[in-house]
Write a structure and sequence with these properties.
The chain is mainly α. Helices cover about 80% and strands about 0% of the residues.
Length: about 230
């Protein structure tokens, strides 16, 4: 157990002294997760509203596909995105392989089904008479959309928090698409895997503590907003 205690003490030292390599991985993770979450919410919230609010042919099948994608393996997403962004792929000329935007594209495919599915569930759980009441009061289509999304805001917040947790903790996409390049595309999860394999538990524990702090902060924020 001495190596665990030593790793924990080293982790505290790295965080307190502002170790540049440790914080490089932290900032890379925050940047790439911000990109992917912004794209996932812009696409996923309207998609979830459409899926949960409207009745159309093939809705049940589409919902089954979205629910199935919730368990999409990260290595499979990484493999497919790598194939598209590599020099032999159709998007190879964009130069996104081994970059943070490239990782963000892969993480968007990971988070998007979570946002769509949980937003649709939140919309489906609302009072079925809400739409009729709003139309009776003269609400326009835009007003109708934003009113329903506002009523389901806590479910959407929970969807965003769940998707953020999935993005922050994934390894496969960051490793395959980002390449785990030091100072450039090394994220917290890939750094933890690398440093642990090297026997450097200090940085791994430090980054693990930062991940736990971020997860606690996100969940605390959601709980705080619910109480308000």
């Amino acid at each position: 157990m001495d190596f665990l205690l030593g790793g924990f003490l080293t982790a505290i030292q790295l965080l307190v002294t502002g170790d540049s390599e440790t914080y490089s991985a932290v900032f890379a993770t925050l940047r790439v997760s911000s990109y992917s979450m912004a794209a996932s919410l812009v696409l996923g919230v309207p998609g979830g509203f459409f899926l949960g609010h409207f009745d159309f042919r093939g809705k049940r099948q589409l919902r089954l596909v979205v629910d199935t994608l919730l368990a999409l393996p990260t290595v499979l997403v990484g493999l497919l995105v790598y194939a598209f962004l590599s020099q032999r792929g159709p998007l190879g000329d964009w130069g996104l392989l081994f970059t943070l935007p490239g990782i963000a594209i892969g993480q968007t495919f990971l988070a998007l089904p979570v946002v769509v599915a949980l937003t649709a569930t939140a919309v489906e759980a609302m009072d079925r008479h809400l739409r009729t009441t709003l139309i009776t009061l003269g609400a326009s289509r835009t007003h109708l959309l934003f009113s329903i999304l506002w009523e389901g805001r806590f479910g959407i917040l929970a969807a965003a928090a769940t998707a953020y947790g999935r993005v922050m903790t994934e390894v496969g996409i960051s490793m395959m698409v980002g390449g785990n390049i030091k100072w450039l595309t090394r994220t917290m999860t890939t750094a933890i895997a690398l440093e642990t394999n090297k026997g450097q538990f200090g940085m791994g524990v430090a980054l693990g503590l930062v991940l736990m702090a971020i997860a606690f902060g996100v969940n605390f924020s959601v709980s705080f907003l619910r109480r308000r």
